[in-house]
Amino acid sequence: MSVSDVHKDAEQKMKGAIEAMVHDFASYRTGRATPAVLDRVHVDYYGTETPINQIANVSVPEPRQLLIQPYEKSMVPTIERAIMKSDLGINPVNDGTGIRLNFPQMTEDRRREMAKQVHGRIEQCKVSIRNIRREAIDGFKALEKKKEITEDEVKGNENKIQKLTDQYVAQADDLGKKKEAELMSV
Question: What is the pLDDT of residue 121?
Fold first, then answer.
C-alpha cells in the first residue's frame, strides 16, 4: 500500500461516514411525511426480514400522511403490526387494502428530542472520521517501518490527513445544523 492509497482510502471512508449520516438524517421525522421514515421498519415476509418499500408501494397523498399499499393484500396486517412495534410512535390506520400513517404536528418537546438524536448521530460520525484518521496515520507509520517513507514524510502526511479530518468534521457539523434547523422550524 502506498501513501496515495492511504490518502484515497481515508478520504473515501470519510465520505462514506458523511453519506451514512445524511442517510440516517432522512429517517428523522420532521413535520412532513416522507417514505424514508419507514427505512428502519422491517416486516417478516415469508421468513425474511424485509424493508416495507420492497413489499409495498409507499406514497405521500398529503403533506402529513403516508399511504402504504402492499403488493399482496395478505401483508396488510403484518405491515400494520411491524409499524406498531417500531419506534415511530404512529398508529397505522388499516383501510382493508392499505395502511395510512397520519403524522401529527410535532410538539416542541418532540422537536427537541429529535434534535438531541441528530446531535448524537453527528457525534457518531465525528468519531468514525477520527478513527479513520487514526487508521491512516497508522498506515503511514507502517510504511515508515518498512522504510518506504521517511519520518518527515510521515509528519507531512499526518498534517494532510488532519486537514482532511477537519474538513469532514466541519461538513458533518454544517449538515447537522441544517437538519436541526429543519427540525425546529414549525
Answer: 92
| Nearest-angstrom CA–CA distance, 26 and 35 | 9
Segments in 55-107 forming alpha helices (H): 76-85
Joined together, the cell numbers standing for residue 54 give: 420492497
- Short-list 82, 92, 89, 81, CA closest to 113: 89
Stretches where the chain sits below pLDDT 70 are 29-31, 186
C-alpha cell at 118: 441528530
Task: Identify whether the C-beta of residue 158 lies closer than 8 Å to the C-beta of residue 3.
Answer: no
Sign of CA dihedral 112, 118, 121, 127: negative
Question: Model pTM?
Answer: 0.71
Burial class (CB in 10 A: 0-12, 13-18, 19+), 186: exposed
Radius of gyration of the chain (CA): 22
Give the three cell numbers for residue 43. 416486516
Q: At 25, phi and psi to the nearest 5?
A: -60, -30
Is 20 in contact with 125 (CB distance < 8 Å)?
yes
The Cα-based distances of 96 to 43, 56, 74, 83, 156 in angstroms read 18, 14, 10, 16, 65
Q: Which three cell numbers stand for residue 121?
A: 448521530
